[in-house]
Amino acid sequence: MKRIVFVVCVVVLIFGVAILAQTQTGTAEQELMKLLKGWEQSVVKLDAAFMEGILADDYTWTDPTGKIHSKAEEIASIKSGQGLVTSNVDDEVKIRVYGDAAVVTGRTTAKWIEKGKESSGQIRWTDTWIKRNGRWQCVADHVSNIPQK
Q: What does the pLDDT read at residue 114?
């Protein structure tokens, strides 16, 4: 009888830990998706304050030409309104959580005005996120242009 009770307790404990781990991953994915939606909107709204909060101090962005930009450069670009984005929509988003780290990939379709000329295009991107002091921050972003047909 004691053996059966022990086995039942072990099975319940294993399922409890598995459910807790799955719930924490689900919560992390939800948090990251919310931050991505905020990022998507902040680019159009020129919301530098939002970006200040989600980009880590050591954030780097590798643009499609291979040039690397810092957080300060990214924030300055948003504040300047240079290359005004009029539409910015993410899709094909995949979030993979590894404890306090996550890799997020997706595609963005955007429209923008630069030097008075309207343009549009698509990019693929990979973001690396780290959870520090209880909040997610993006530490790296790599972007590649999708050639237009």
A: 82
